[in-house]
Write a structure and sequence with these properties.
This protein has about 475 residues and is mainly alpha-helical. The protein has helices at about 1-40, 65-80, 80-95, 105-125, 125-140, 175-180, 180-190, 195-210, 240-255, 260-275, 305-315, 320-340, 375-385, 390-405, 430-445; strands spanning about 45-50, 55, 105, 155, 160-165, 175, 220, 230, 235, 275-280, 285, 290, 295, 300, 350-355, 410, 410-415, 455-460, 465. The chain is built from 15 helices and 19 strands. α11 (about 305-315) packs antiparallel against α12 (about 320-340). The chain binds 1-deoxymannojirimycin. Its EC number is 3.2.1.-.
Length: about 475
């Protein structure tokens, strides 16, 4: 009797292993397609333009090249695309030039290049990735030479001169930019034995702890000169997002020793829940933006990472809060899924609103685009790992089908300008984070939990895995 019961179950398990293996194979071919076309038409440029079949350089990386190579390294490695990984590694060894001049975003260089190189080093042990990461890290240090030590957003990698973004209020620095350095900089200190990197980010934390927070919230603009807020705009989406992410991940990466980061995260989330989390008339939970006390009932695609973050934090919230936060995370992830499900392409818009009868849809023409962003599938991946509810895999698969149908073009994957039409116009850009994040998170959604286990790795905000410090860093986090 016992045998006849267990047999079909076993068969089912085998079937599901087989199924997820063939799905993984599907992601491998997507990644290979994205990489092969980049290699053929744009190797050495920053991104591929998949319609015109050429490369794009842009102005975010200050003369650095190969953003897609460095962003793709760990995904290629994890997917065991050995030949392609070797191609990428060879480019880093032979052609990745750090002696460049030009205006770079401190934040973007850190999350994509330093994060990508560090992850490649930790996964493979290849010295070239470590030495490039350290060399590049040194070049970022002059940005911290301000009266408060809060770095400015833009740096010339050649001269070391730094300044604030022209569009940022009154010469301010951006919370999500200076607040998204901690994970990488601790690893730079650990690997170099030079405490300077850790000191820089610990000082940022000190300034943030000192300044008064309106209703416990962190506004997005801070003056690097006075250390005071410049404007009271609060958002868990663009301009704020990964600051919160790095608080909980700093604590996890320290093997749960950095209790200051945990407290900052807990307090910030409490304030966010109290002031920004709302429920729509149709019952969808969302996180609004806050402008000097007035709510803007809008959620950006970028804010959709927060389902995953809140779920990750819930695991460690103590028994009575754990279920509450898991529920909140599930509700937010569901809302983000709705923003996809309510579009004709089944891909979500850049921003969606909850006002004047609108629920989880873009109302402005300028917010209807989708640029291959990862945040929604990122939350599916965390929700899957933390709950094993199969709907997250189903939702992930819906995204894959939509990407294949609307974003795959002859020579790569492209963003689209309007998610509400099934004959979308392509934006001719294969973003590097599509290879670093979107495809990696989709792949991990269908892997066993021990592939880059959440107990041993934290993902930086560009999905580059950094190891949890189970053995005590030399660089202090006190
Ligand atoms: C990526 O560079 C990172 O995920 C960052 O945190 C936000 N923007 C893009 C993806 O949308």
């Amino acid at each position: 009797m016992g045998h006849s019961h267990s047999f079909p179950e076993l068969k089912f398990r085998k079937l599901s292993v087989l199924l997820s293996t063939s799905i993984q194979f599907f992601f491998l071919q997507m990644m290979k397609f994205a990489w092969d076309n980049y290699k053929q038409y744009a190797l050495g440029k920053n991104e591929l333009r998949p319609l015109t079949k050429n490369g794009h350089i842009g102005n975010m990386f200050g003369g650095l090249r190969g953003a897609t190579v460095v962003d793709a390294l760990d995904t290629l490695y994890i997917m065991e695309l050995e030949e392609e990984f070797q191609e990428a590694k060879k480019w880093v060894e032979k052609s990745f030039d750090l002696n460049v001049n030009g205006e770079a975003s401190l934040f973007e260089v850190n999350i994509r290049y330093i994060g990508g190189l560090l992850a490649a080093y930790y996964l493979t042990g290849e010295e070239v990735f470590k030495s490039k990461a350290l060399e590049l890290g040194e070049k970022l240090l002059p940005a911290f030479n301000t009266p408060t030590g809060i770095p400015r957003g833009v740096i010339n990698l050649g001269s070391g001169m730094s300044w604030s973004w022209g569009w940022a209020s009154a010469g301010s620095s951006i919370l999500a930019e200076f607040g998204t350095l901690h994970l990488e900089f601790l690893h730079l200190s650990e690997l170099s034995g030079n405490p300077v990197f850790a000191e820089k980010v610990m000082n940022i934390r000190k300034v943030l702890n000192r300044v008064e927070k309106p209703q416990g919230l962190y506004p997005n603009f801070l003056s690097p000169v006075t250390g005071n807020w410049v404007q009271h705009h609060v958002s868990i989406g663009g301009l704020g997002d990964s600051f919160y992410e790095y608080l909980i991940k700093s604590w996890l990466m320290s093997d749960k020793k950095d209790s200051e980061a945990k407290k900052m995260y807990d307090d910030a989330l409490e304030a966010i829940e109290k002031h920004l989390v709302k429920k729509s008339a149709g019952g969808l939970t969302y996180i609004a933006e806050w402008r000097g006390g007035i709510l803007d009932h809008k959620m950006g695609h970028l804010a959709c990472f927060s389902g995953g973050m809140i779920a990750l934090g819930a695991e460690h919230a103590g028994e009575e809060r754990k279920q509450h936060y898991l529920d909140l995370a599930a509700e937010i992830t569901n809302t983000c899924h709705e923003s996809y499900a309510r579009s004709d392409t089944k891909l979500g818009p850049e921003a969606f609103r909850f006002d004047a009868g609108t629920e989880a849809m873009a109302t402005r023409l300028s917010e209807r685009y989708y640029i291959l962003r990862p945040e929604v599938v990122e939350s599916y991946m965390y929700m899957w790992r933390l709950t094993h509810d199969p709907k997250y895999r189903q939702w992930g698969w819906e995204v894959v089908k939509a990407l294949e149908k609307h974003c795959r073009v002859e020579a790569g994957f492209s963003g689209i300008r309007d998610v509400y039409t099934t004959t979308p116009t392509h934006d001719n850009m294969q973003q590097s984070f599509f290879l670093a994040e979107t495809l990696k998170y989709l792949y991990l959604l269908f892997c066993e939990d021990d592939v880059l286990s959440l107990d041993d790795w934290v993902f930086n905000t560009e999905a580059h895995p950094l190891p949890v410090n189970h053995t005590n860093f030399k660089a202090s986090v006190q």
